[in-house]
Design brief:
This protein is an alpha/beta fold and 385 residues long. The chain folds into two domains: 2-148 and 283-353, Rossmann fold (3-Layer(aba) Sandwich); 150-277 and 366-378, Rossmann fold, CATH 3.40.50.2300. It has 13 helices and 15 strands. It has a seven-stranded mixed sheet, with helices on both faces. A three-stranded mixed sheet has the order 1-3-2, with helices on both faces. A hairpin with a 2-residue loop joins β12 (344-347) and β13. The longest helix is centred in the N-terminal third of the chain and has 20 residues, at 44-63.
């Protein structure tokens, strides 16, 4: 299913249809990016959140005249968080030649399927919502990441649980695919550096909430903490069922879970659940980036701020910075050169650093906790669970 954003629909209303389909998504008055992500199903809040954040960044730029006189547009395609659908959309996008690049794709298995298609075609692949290591191969030439890796997130988990809180019995629940196994490898490596091993492992199948069998197996090991690599609906099912069964370890989740969606799904069962983040706290308006994001997001969306939309906004800002650097005579080749030329990028007080051999802008990981009221609070280093 193809979803055209409000911005794209507005462009259709004011521009001749033939111009919208100009080569590489570039016309005299507009430039169009594609997003391929889950817009429906158990991971839809992630795709929709990234879309909303990117749109907010584009709308902010468009309100000031666009970039080099062009309005910046987004067209979204729903892959349902399924790799085959993601790759099929990418092939259509390449063949259609109506988009400058891909922005804000969601997921490790979907990116594993779509990235080779984009790389072969020389299509920019900007700001994927995943910390998978294979996307950090700068030699591929078309991939530009914003967020820290899953390896960095899992190291932060184990540092908090083991080094900070003195725990020794750690178990894991993970999605049984490439995404989950990347998380498993990160946790295993972090424990191995400390001479430790997992006490138990459990899995579930992508795009299902079939977690009860894994829960029963993990409970037998009596872990002090269960670290979780999954999407929000199955994770919420796991935690809620655990609470009902009086299984109460510390639960720690990866950023991909979708913090806002997870908190909403959990309700009262969410108190104390830890989630690692790869963007600043979205409610800290003392940070200029966050204050600007909040204003742009409020002007574009009726939703409340959150981690996923802030990441989407930051991804949009990076794409816009490269558009500015590419100049008025815009081509895909020139845009790729502009992306490759990004070095130290200041997003209103948040620094991103790129360079030769380094296609990832940020390395920071922040730990947060869901409060009794369903909000979030930062975890200070050494603070108890």
């Amino acid at each position: 299913m193809r979803l055209r954003t409000t911005l794209f629909a507005a462009a259709l209303a004011c521009c001749p249809a033939g111009l919208i389909q100009a080569g590489q998504g570039v016309t005299d008055s507009s430039v169009t990016f594609a997003q391929v992500a889950a817009m429906d199903g158990p991971a839809s809040a992630l795709g929709l959140g990234m879309k909303a954040g990117i749109e907010a960044a584009f709308a902010e730029a468009n309100a000031s005249g666009g970039v080099h006189g062009r309005q910046v547009l987004l067209e979204a395609f729903d892959d349902g968080y399924e790799p085959d659908r993601s790759a099929a959309h990418l092939r259509d996008i390449v063949q259609g030649d109506a988009h400058l690049g891909l922005i804000g794709p969601v997921g490790t298995p979907t990116s594993a399927a779509s990235q080779p298609v984009a790389t072969e075609a020389g299509l920019p692949f900007i700001g994927p919502f995943t910390g998978a290591g294979f996307l950090r191969d700068a030699s591929l030439g078309n991939i530009y990441n914003i967020r820290a890796t899953y390896a960095a997130e899992t190291e932060a988990w184990i540092a908090h649980l083991v080094d900070g809180l003195g725990m020794s019995q750690i178990a894991i629940l993970y999605q049984d695919d490439g995404f989950g196994r990347v998380g498993l490898d990160g946790v295993t490596a972090a424990l191995d550096r400390r001479g430790m091993q997992l006490v138990a492992q459990g899995t579930y199948t992508r795009n299902t909430v079939a977690v009860k069998s894994a829960l029963l197996d993990l409970r037998k090991a009596e872990p002090e903490a269960v670290v979780i690599v999954g999407a929000y609906k199955p994770v919420a099912e796991f935690i809620k069922l655990s609470r009902k069964l009086k299984f109460e370890p510390t639960f720690v989740n990866i950023s991909f879970v979708g913090s806002d969606a997870l908190a909403a799904e959990l309700g009262e069962a969410g108190e104390g659940v830890i989630i690692s983040q790869v963007v600043p706290f979205p409610w800290d308006d003392g940070l200029p980036l966050v204050a600007r994001y909040q204003a742009a997001f409020a002007a574009h969306s009726g939703s409340t701020p959150g981690f996923v939309t802030l990441e989407g906004y930051m991804v949009g800002r990076v794409a816009l910075a490269a558009l500015e650097a590419a100049g008025k005579d815009l081509t895909r080749e020139g845009y790729l050169k502009a992306l490759a030329g990004l070095r130290d990028l200041d997003l209103d007080g948040v620094a991103l650093h790129f360079g030769p051999g380094d296609n990832q802008g940020m390395d920071e990981v922040f730990l947060t906790r869901i409060t009794a009221g369903g909000d979030f609070e930062p975890i200070v280093s050494g603070q108890g669970s």
